[in-house]
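Anyone opening a protein record will find just a pair of labelled lines. A complete record is shown below as an example.
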Amino acid sequence: MSDPASGRSYWDAVAGKKEFTVPLPEALLTRYVASDAALLDCGCGYGRSLAELQSRGYRRLAGCDFSSAMIALARARVPDAELKVNAPLELPFADRCFDAVLLLAVLTCIIADADQQRMLGEIVRVLRPGGVVIAGDFLLNTDARNQARYRQYQAQFGTYGVFALPEEGAVLRHHDRAWLETLFAGFDALDFQTTVYRTMNGHRSNGFYFVGKRTERTGSNA
């Protein structure tokens, strides 16, 4: 299992240099999240999505990221949001304090199944019953370049879909849909859409958006 804190130095180093490219899912937000909702952007990075949310009338905004360099940029960009540096796989917020949690291109940075499950447990903890998680992330690809690197790193990391960017010092994950169904099984699924994203390095990748509702059952299984 990879140390979930091991990527912090990479994200600190690229703060202000990398553009996050998973789009804010405006139609899903409009449908499932009221403008007066208390909303957490988990893994908010430099505040790109928070700034977009604010421009669309959302005011009760919070964000967290384990990169202090990213949070410094976010504070300059969205000074009215409640922003915190979090420990890996922990959310520095009270139980049941948010109506919605946004999780964009965060799971790709958490390569181990158990660590992803722990992150989802934290999201369940901070969501109120009836609150929603909106996740957007990367699916497995079938092109030769991606398949080759999935196979190359499977023995090292134990999961098909995990790969390293040795020149950059990052380890990332693309996801099998069956695993996502397991990961989000505790939520009442409201929406699942497939799409294609542009990655930070300018490539195309399969992707998804998922919307799930927290119920009392979800909380009891967290």
About this structure: The domain at 8-139+177-221 is CATH 3.40.50.150 (Rossmann fold). The helical segments are 8-14, 26-32, 48-55, 68-77, 113-126, 144-157, 177-183, 216-221. The chain has a mean pLDDT of 93. The longest strand covers residues 127-138.
